[in-house]
Amino acid sequence: MIAQIFTLLGALAMFLYGMNMMSSGIQKAAGNRLRSLLGAMTSNPFKGVLTGLGITAIIQSSSATTVLVVSFVSAGLLTLSQAIGVIMGANIGTTVTAWIISILGFKFDIAVLSIPLFLFGFILMQMKKDKYHNIGEFIIGFSLLFLGLSLIKSSVPDLKTTPEVLSFIRNWTSWGFGSVLIFVVFGTVLTLVLQSSSATMAITLIMLNEGWIPFEMGAAMVLGENIGTTITANVAAAMGNVNARRTALTHTIFNIFGVIWALALFRPFIALDKAVVSWIGEFNPLVGLSMFHTLFNTINTLLLVWFIPQLEKLVVKVLPDRKKKGEDTHEHIRYISGGPVATPELGATMALMETSHFAAISSNEVQIIEEALENLGNEDFEEHRARLVKYEVISDNIEKEVASFLGRLTEEEISVSTSKLIKALYRINSELESLGDSGECISRILSRIRSLGAPLSQERNRGISHMLTALRSAYQTMISNLNSISSSGDGARFDLNRAIDDEKAINCLRDRLRDEEFSRIERLDLTEEEYAFSTLYLDVVAELERMGDYIINISEALDTATRS
After folding, report:
1. Is residue 167 classed exposed, middle or buried when 0-12, 13-18 and 19+ CB atoms within 10 A define those classes?
2. pLDDT, position 327
3. Which residues 6+ apart lie within 8 Å of 419 measured at CB?
């Protein structure tokens, strides 16, 4: 008996591992396409529903989709109303798993093909090309999933030979509507424990197939699974901002509302389900349960998709925005959080968007340096100098946060392309942090110039202004290159040549300004104070040129990451 229990648990573990491996493989293979699909989401709620349905049907994980949506809302890439539509679609998409299991897992002995498929997947995983490796991982996961399902079916106690083993479950089914409520709770708890509604659905199908429970109790478990699956989004949102928590709360409200009406109309709903299945063909309890799952989520979506604005108002009222007035959003990351990551591939996309945001923050330093230069002779200078110091602290903090997030991504197995991107992001964020250091360094140099008590000459002011103009152009190119990668995923608008031209222009301008300053020194008999001005001016020019080096390094790192 003990051996049978451990065999059953091991089979369940194999099923879960196979499902995770299958999902991971397909997400790696379709990473860029998923990013493009997410980028195509609009304010149209029906397109959001279709997007959520499509993504979840592909990656076979509504949890991954909801975690991703929470991240996008937290980042400000999706509005709350858009996210609600996507989550509704994800609930429909997750029913695909039940259909696959009920049709292939019970009608055919697909476990017979699992070993040959495992061999085929193993061969593909040995290939160097990333695409084949990911497809091989998907096939092996698929094989393990159905091998585990077959072992679960063969390991469960047989009620005919050992009826006493599960007699307590039979007792649960004899209390009328109370039994329905008990199995709703049972399905909820089981999903919370397994952290996978698909795994709970598989167990429910097996229990139904083995005769442990009647069809009605299986349907009640399905309702409970829809409540239990919302816990993943809530965990993901716990570390996010208020919009992320609102998204997770909406998911919970949506599913609980559906369970309430389904319980209120339980008998008529069961009758409708049986009628639909019987209309298609002879009624099969396994197909009927999968149909019940699909009908529940589809009807619930059709009921609530018209009330997305009202749902949005409700969760905003429950979770009001407590952000303090005047809070500087630059001090905080926008696109990543400390919560769960949907997948390493999509997590890398979030880190790339955070890096683009970091670059946009860093580009503000050019304007602040310009303002500090203009106010060098008055008291407003200190305000601008303090801002440059603050930006250096902000840069340090963001760089640490992004590096920590990237470290979490590398804890899991990742594709070769994602590994290259993560390495590039480490370097890029380090370069952006160095740009913050340069801004703070320039603030110190300008402060020393101010302490000399005389303004910079018009020629030197003009020289620094020309350098800042060239630097601003380089920043724009670098940010454009970052955005081209993060928005399209394929870098179609990436322009390394333009970045190189910008860097050459900065170097040439530095050389010209330095030569002009050396000519002035040789031509004029400078006092010690004037010589100090000259040295400090050249230090500013050199630091601005160094900033240009950091900027070109970023585009070069991107080029390396996107090169196949």
Report:
1. exposed
2. 44
3. 410
Instruction: Return the CA Rg of the chain.
Output: 30
Judge contact between 323 and 360, C-beta under 8 A. Answer: no
Tell me, what's the pLDDT at 538? Answer: 93
Identify the CA nearest to 402 among candidates 372, 424, 369: 424
What domains can you pick out in the chain, each with its CATH number?
Answer: 2-318 (no CATH), 343-562 (1.20.58.220)
pLDDT of residue 87: 83
pLDDT of 330 over the 70 cut: no
Q: What is the DSSP string of 145-203?
A: HHHHHHHHHHHSPPTTT-TTTTHHHHHHTTSTHHHHHHHHHHHHHHHHHHT-HHHHHHH
Whether this model's pTM surpasses 0.90: no
3-state helix, strand, coil in the chain (%, to 5): 80, 0, 20
Q: pLDDT tens-digit profile of 184-211?
A: 998 888 887 776 777 788 888 888 887 7
One-letter amino acid for residue 360 of the chain = A
Q: Spell out the residues 6+ positions from residue 301 whose beta carbon is closer than 8 angstroms to its own.
A: 49, 88, 89, 91, 92
| Cα–Cα distance list, 259 to 202, 247, 275, 290 (Å) | 20, 19, 20, 16
Residue 305: both structure tokens together: 């998709």
Give the angle subtended at the CA of 100 by the CAs of 95 and 101, to the nearest 5°.
100
Distance CA 494, CA 484 (A): 6
Model pLDDT for residues 137-151, shown as the tens digit of each residue: 888 887 887 777 677
Q: Provide the pLDDT confidence category of residue 37 given band limits of 50, 70 and 90.
A: low
